[in-house]
Amino acid sequence: MTLSPFYPELDAAIRRYVQAATQHYLEQYQDQKFYALALGMVEDICGFFIVGNTLEQLANGCSEEDEAYQYWYISEWCSNEFEGLPNLVHDVVTHIAKNTDHDAEDFCLRQAYQNHILAVLADLRAQGQLRNAQGEELLVWVQYADASDENFDDISFAHLNSPELTELFIQRFNSEQDNLTGHLRQQMQKLGYLN
User: Fold this and answer.
1) What is the model's pLDDT at position 65?
2) Pairing status of strand 34-41 against strand 48-54
3) Largest distance between two CA atoms of the chain
4) Side-chain half-sphere CA neighbours of 132 within 13 A
5) CB atoms < 10 A from the CB of 133, how many?
6) Distance between CA atoms of residues 139 and 73, nearest Å
7) H or E stretch including 194?
8) 51 Cβ partners below 8 Å, 6+ apart?
């Protein structure tokens, strides 16, 4: 994927942050099954965070009544937030907002910001940099933690993962269908983390 020529400094900051977070999680989770890397945003672009999760942590944190939250709402994983480069991306996007005709709540800037994030993640995926220690592709998506754009989970997941996984992700809350929630449960059962 070709990265945007509009804000190369934003692409560079996002890339550096994602690479550092991925390396952090690879080291932190070397004895666990690291399966997901997710980026969180909020509507006014000042919020940006990255979290990783493992099947072990997922199994330990899940109960039947809040299973969907533990699996798919990344703010539930915030104890695992990467904090190694504080404000790197925030500072760059804030600088862009201050030095253009946009402000931090501007829809056009938010769209450009989303596009930059997706472009960098897709490029890292194409380079094989979004894998766990076993060499398996991580599930990767972007989520608005304030629920300001609830459809962006599906949009970003489809942009960054295979069509087969995307179909399962889209059905993740539908217990009547084959879905990614069920697939993760099966993996955890196989590994002995769930009964």
Assistant:
1) 63
2) antiparallel
3) 56
4) 20
5) 14
6) 14
7) none
8) 37, 38, 40, 74, 77, 78, 80, 81, 82
Task: For 108-162, write each residue's pLDDT tens digit.
Answer: 888 888 999 999 999 999 999 999 999 999 999 999 988 888 899 999 999 999 9
Rounded distance between C-alpha atoms, residue 6 and residue 112, angstroms: 9
In angstroms, the CA 169 to CA 12 distance is 29
Residue with tokens 């550096």: 16
β-partners of residue 142 are 39
Q: For residue 141, give the H/E element and its range.
A: strand 139-144
- The whole-angstrom separation of Cα 69 and Cα 36 is 15
Q: pTM here?
A: 0.91
Residue with tokens 């932190």: 28
Q: Are 115 and 4 in contact (CB under 8 A)?
A: yes
CB 161 within 8 A of CB 139: yes
Residues in the chain: 195
